[in-house]
Amino acid sequence: MFFARGRGAYLVDVDGRKYLDLVGSWGANILGNAPPVIVRAVQKAAEQGLTFGAPSPLEHELGERIRRAVPRLQRLRFVSSGTEAVMSAVRVARGFTRRNKIVKFAGGYHGHSDGLLARAGSGVANPALPDSAGVPPAVVGETFVSRYNDPDGLSELFERFGQSIAAVLVEPIAGNMGVVVPRPSFLETISRLAHREGALVIADEVITGFRLRRGTIHETLGLEADLVTLGKIVGGGMPVGVYGGPRDVMETVAPVGPVYQAGTLSGNPVAMAAGAAMLDQLTPDIYRTLERTGATLEERLRACAEQERVHPFTVQRAGSMLGLFFARGPIVDDRGTARSDRGRYARFFHAALDRGVYLPPSPLETTFVSAAIRPTDLARADGALRAAFLAALGRNG
Length: 397
Ligand SMILES: *Cc1c(COP(=O)(O)O)cnc(C)c1O
What we know:
Layout: E1 3-7, E2 10-13, E3 18-21, H1 36-47, H2 57-69, E4 75-79, H3 82-97, E5 101-105, E6 118-119, E7 129-130, H4 137-140, E8 143-146, H5 151-161, E9 165-170, H6 186-196, E10 200-204, E11 227-230, E12 241-245, H7 247-250, H8 269-281, H9 284-307, E13 314-318, E14 321-325, H10 334-339, H11 342-354, E15 357-358, E16 367-368, H12 375-392
Helix pairs in contact: 1-8, 2-8, 5-6, 9-12, 11-12
The structure holds pyridoxal-5'-phosphate (PLP).
């Protein structure tokens, strides 16, 4: 797909075809496409300079807004992507603990840094294998891949390797294997096991940060995080990543501490202005709207699937994040996601696209609603969704 422009709830491709946007730039566009207040903030900042390669007060504008919403971020750093944010947080955790091993969960995505493009080896206790060509086995050899929602597996890992684990990296609500919510106590178990053994917990909130409430979501779900990563929404549509945590942990970062991290365009003034303008818009009203819109889309998807007798079909939703599975629910981990019928999803996606509804092309990705979507937009998409469900079954409407 090549898009030419976007406004509010809709995208327009290079051939002039219009689509209801249910991807939202993978979650960044929580207010919809090109909100005028953010565009104006970007224009105003750009006129003052595109990059200084040095700090500007705009970093404080965004930094203070983030810190007020997430008080645990006593110190934070700006980078240019979620990938960089997580990569840097992992380096800080290793530098702080002087340990090397990292634990992630199968189905979790944390950007494309080498060490995190890892899939489970044979058995939990074995080092991970590369999940991409070009990644050396030795690099992912420092990563363990545990199972989401499986406290026993994690406990076993900690029993055997606890003293060498620097950090556990987790999405508090998984958004890269569809939408998978943690079972009660799973996240609590993570922080308990990690902290008992002197390891840190990194909450990867690149998707969930400012998506479900003004701030992060891990605290409300019982996860005690040391480091937190943000991205997507906090950049207001520009390239921004954030990592941060308590003062003592963050003081391992240079120039105060020994952990190196820098970026030519980090804290870029135009991106900072976009992020600050975005956060100013995220009022409780916006989150109420997002919840309503998410619930409406969920109901409509269920009703359309029912009408076309598509079984099994499961929607898992957290606010404005929806996971769509052609499988019986509940889906609790990557094995559940893998049960979703990929052929059906592919036909569903293409049929919806042909009828002007842009969904994520992979069932592993989250369907996002933005605050720009009105009930009438969803009502208008009903016909497309029904036809897409028919197509999913290999029939034509
Ligand atoms: C998108 C994402 C990242 C990577 O962010 P990029 O800006 O694409 O590099 C990291 N973690 C999570 C949870 C994400 O969803």
